[in-house]
Amino acid sequence: MRTRGGNARAGRLAAALAVLLLPLGCRSVPVHFYSLLPPASGEPAVPISAAVRFVLEPVEVPAEVDRSELVLRRGTSEVLLAEDEQWSAPLPAQLWQAVSVELERALRSAGTAAGPEPPRIRLQIERFEAQLGGYALIRAQWWVSAGTQELVCDAPFVQPVASGYAALVAGYQRAVVMLADAIAASTRPAALAAGRCPQS
C-alpha cells in the first residue's frame, strides 16, 4: 500500500518531469537561415592587369526590414514577419558583403583596372520587399565619386520568384547581381565624365 509520503513524492516527480518536457513541445518548426551570398561558382577569375579597387561604404536599409526575420508584403498595405525564416547575419552587413563580391566580379569581367584613386560608393536601399510566389524587389540609390567627379543614380531591380522562401532569397540574390552590374557601370570614367547613369 502506497503511503501519503510516497504519493507526495510521486506527485512532485511527475510535476518535475512535466516541467522538463514542456520546452520540447513549445517549438516544433525549425528556424531556417538564409544568405544573400550565392554559392561559389568555382569559375576562374577573369585576369586583369591590376587589382580591382573600390570603397563601398556601409549599406543603409529601411528600418522596417532591418531585422533578422524575412519581411514579406501581402496585399497593398500588409507586412508579415516570417519568424521561422531568418537572415544568417544582419541585413545591412549581408548586403554590403554580397554587393562587394558581385561588384568585384562585374569590374573584373569588364576588365576594369584600378585607377589612381579608387571610386567611393555610397549605397542606400530605398525598398527591399518581396511576395512569396511573386517578386523580389530592391530599389536603390547610389553615389559614386572619384576625384572631382560624382554621379548619383537611382533604379529598381526586380526578379520574379517561384513559391517558397528559398526561391524568394534566390530572387534577391539575382537582384543584387543586377544592382552590382549597374553600380559597376557607374564607376567607368566615361559614365562619370558624362554624368550618365546606366539603364536598369
Detailed description of the structure:
This protein is of the alpha/beta class and 200 residues long. The protein has a single domain (33-194), classed as Rossmann fold (3-Layer(aba) Sandwich), CATH 3.40.50. It has four helices and seven strands. The chain has a four-stranded mixed β-sheet with strand order 2-5-6-7. Strands 1-4-3 form a three-stranded mixed β-sheet, covered by helices on one side. A hairpin with a 3-residue loop joins β5 (120-131) and β6 (135-146). α2 crosses α3. The termini are far apart. Residues 17-25 have low confidence and may be disordered.
What fraction of residues sit in β-strands?
Answer: 25-35%
Cα-atom radius of gyration: 25 Å
Contiguous low-pLDDT stretches (5 residues minimum) are: 17-25
At the fold tier of CATH, the topology name is Rossmann fold
List the strand order in the largest sheet. 2-5-6-7
- The number of strands is 7
Distance between the termini: 84 Å
The CATH class is: Alpha Beta
- What structural class do you assign from the helix and strand content? alpha/beta
**Count of folded domains:** 1
* Shape verdict: elongated
CATH architecture title: 3-Layer(aba) Sandwich
Topology as H/E string? HEEEEHEEEHH
Helix coverage percent of residues?
25-40%
Number of helices: 4
CATH superfamily: ABC-type transport auxiliary lipoprotein component
**Mean of residue pLDDT?**
84
**Largest sheet entry:** 4 strands, mixed
